[in-house]
Write a structure and sequence with these properties.
The chain is built from 15 helices and nine strands. The protein is an alpha+beta fold. The chain has two domains: about 120 residues, 2-Layer Sandwich (Phosphorylase Kinase, domain 1), CATH 3.30.200; about 220 residues, Aminoglycoside phosphotransferase (APH), C-terminal lobe (Aminoglycoside 3'-phosphotransferase, Chain: A, domain 2), CATH 3.90.1200.10. β4 and β5 form a beta hairpin. α8 crosses α14 and α14 runs antiparallel to α15. It is globular and about 65 Å long.
C-alpha cells in the first residue's frame, strides 16, 4: 500500500477515534524499521517503490494539542501460502507431492488479506480479545489491501521478532496462558458465526495431508541432519502414521478463536505487565490447546518436567473456566498432548521449511523442546 493512500485516510480515522478535527491532524512519518532480521518481507509483499509501505510503519500524529505515537500495519492481499511458501519451495527445490496451496492445512496461510483487519473489528465486541490487543483506531482499505491503525505500545518486553529465543519465566508463561485462555473461552459463544476464519483442522483433514508432513520431514532430515536426526525422523514418522489415534483427543474440545502463531515472535508484555498479542494474520478456528502447545514449545526447554507442564496447563484451563467454559482436566491434558504432536509435525515442519531459506536461530531449540514435550505428555493420552 502506498504511504500517500495511508496519509489520505488517516486524518478522518484518527479524528473519529479522538474527537479531533481532521483538519487539525498533522502526520510525521518515522524512518522505516530495520528489517534485516526479517528478509522474507520483500517476498511476502512483492516489489515496491519509495512510497510503498510493507509490514509496520511508525507515525507521529499531532491531533489537537496532543502528540500520538501510532503504528500502521499493512496486510498484503495474498497470504504467505500463496507467495512466500511456494517461493521457498521453488527456490530451495523442496519436493512436494502437489502444489502447496492445495493441501487442507494451508487454509491458515491462504487468502489472509482481510483476516487481521476483521479480527480487530471483532475485538470491539469481544472485551477479552480487545484486552490483549493494541489500542485500535480503525482500518484503511485501498485496492484490496488493508492498513490497520494502532497505538504504538512502545517497548514490549519478551517480544522477539527475530527469534533469538530466550526461555520465558514461569510467571510470564502463566500470564500469557491466562490471557489467551480468557479469549478462548469468550470466543466459544460467537465462533460459529465468524465466517471469515479458516475451518478447524480435524483428524481427517490432518491425516489427509500426511504426504505433506512426510515430504517436509524428509527434506528437513536431509537438509538439517544435525537437527532432524535419524531418531527424530523415526519419532515424527510414527506420529504421522498415527494421526487418527492421537488427534481425536483435541477434536472433542470446543472450537475457539486461536491466534495460531502464539509465540514470542508475536507475543509479549506491556510495561505494566499485561499481555499483548500481535500479528493475527494466521488466526483460525481450532481447539483451545493449539495456542498452549505453540507457546510452550517456544518458551520452555527440554529441562521442564511433567508436573510443571501440568501446572502450566492448569493456568489455561482455569482461565477458561473462570470465563464460563469449564473443561475436565483429563480432556484438557489429552488435547494438549495431541496438539503438541500436531506442533511437531505441522508447525515445526513449516519452521524447518522457512529455515531452508532464512537463518532462524531458534530452530534447534524449538525442535528439541517439542520432542521433549511430546515424550513428557505421552501418559496424558492413555
Amino acid at each position: 500500500m502506498r504511504f500517500s493512500d495511508i496519509a489520505a485516510g488517516l486524518p478522518e480515522l484518527v479524528a473519529t477515534a479522538t474527537g479531533t478535527s481532521a483538519a487539525a491532524i498533522v502526520i510525521d512519518r518515522e524512518p522505516p524499521p530495520d528489517t534485516a532480521d526479517q528478509p522474507w518481507l520483500g517476498v511476502k509483499y512483492g516489489p515496491s517503490g519509495d512510497d510503498d509501505v510493507h509490514g509496520v510503519v511508525g507515525l507521529q500524529v499531532h491531533a489537537g494539542d496532543r502528540l500520538r505515537d501510532l503504528v500502521v500495519k499493512v496486510n498484503p492481499v495474498h497470504g504467505i501460502g500463496e507467495t512466500l511458501i511456494p517461493w521457498i519451495v521453488r527456490e530451495q527445490s523442496i519436493d512436494l507431492p502437489q502444489p502447496y496451496p492445495l493441501f487442507h492445512s494451508t487454509a491458515e496461510v491462504v487468502a489472509t488479506g482481510t483476516r487481521e483487519a476483521n479480527l480487530y473489528e471483532l475485538s470491539r465486541t469481544l472485551p477479552e480479545l480487545e484486552a490483549i490487543l493494541p489500542t485500535f483506531y480503525g482500518v484503511i482499505a485501498v485496492h484490496g489491501e488493508r492498513a490497520i491503525v494502532l497505538a504504538d505500545e512502545g517497548t514490549v518486553r519478551g517480544l522477539d521478532a527475530g527469534g533469538s529465543r530466550i526461555r520465558w519465566s514461569t510467571a510470564d508463561i502463566e500470564t500469557a496462558l491466562r490471557g489467551v485462555g480468557a479469549v478462548h473461552a469468550a470466543s466459544v459463544a460467537i465462533i460459529g458465526d465468524v465466517a471469515w476464519l479458516p475451518r478447524r483442522p480435524t483428524a481427517d483433514s490432518m491425516a489427509a495431508d500426511a504426504a505433506l508432513w512426510r515430504a517436509l520431514l524428509c527434506d528437513a532430515s536431509q537438509r538439517f541432519p544435525e537437527i532432524v536426526t535419524t531418531a527424530v525422523h523415526q519419532q515424527r514418522s510414527s506420529l504421522i502414521d498415527t494421526i487418527a489415534e492421537w488427534h481425536a483427543a483435541k477434536d472433542v474440545l470446543p472450537t475457539v478463536l486461536a491466534h495460531n502463531d502464539f509465540n514470542p515472535r508475536n507475543v509479549g508484555f506491556r510495561s505494566d505487565g499485561r499481555l499483548l498479542a500481535l500479528d493475527w494474520e494466521m488466526a483460525r478456528k481450532d481447539s483451545p490447546t493449539r495456542d498452549v502447545a505453540e507457546l510452550l514449545t517456544f518458551t520452555l526447554d527440554p529441562s521442564v518436567i511433567e508436573p510443571d507442564l501440568r501446572r502450566l496447563a492448569r493456568e489455561h484451563r482455569q482461565a477458561m473456566a473462570a470465563n464460563g467454559v469449564p473443561i475436565a482436566e483429563d480432556a484438557h491434558l489429552a488435547a494438549l498432548a495431541a496438539d503438541l504432536r500436531a506442533e511437531a509435525i505441522d508447525r515445526i515442519g513449516m519452521q524447518l521449511l522457512f529455515a531452508a531459506a532464512f537463518d532462524l536461530p531458534y530452530i534447534p531449540a524449538i525442535n528439541a523442546t517439542v520432542d521433549h514435550l511430546v515424550s513428557a505428555t505421552a501418559p496424558w493420552l492413555t
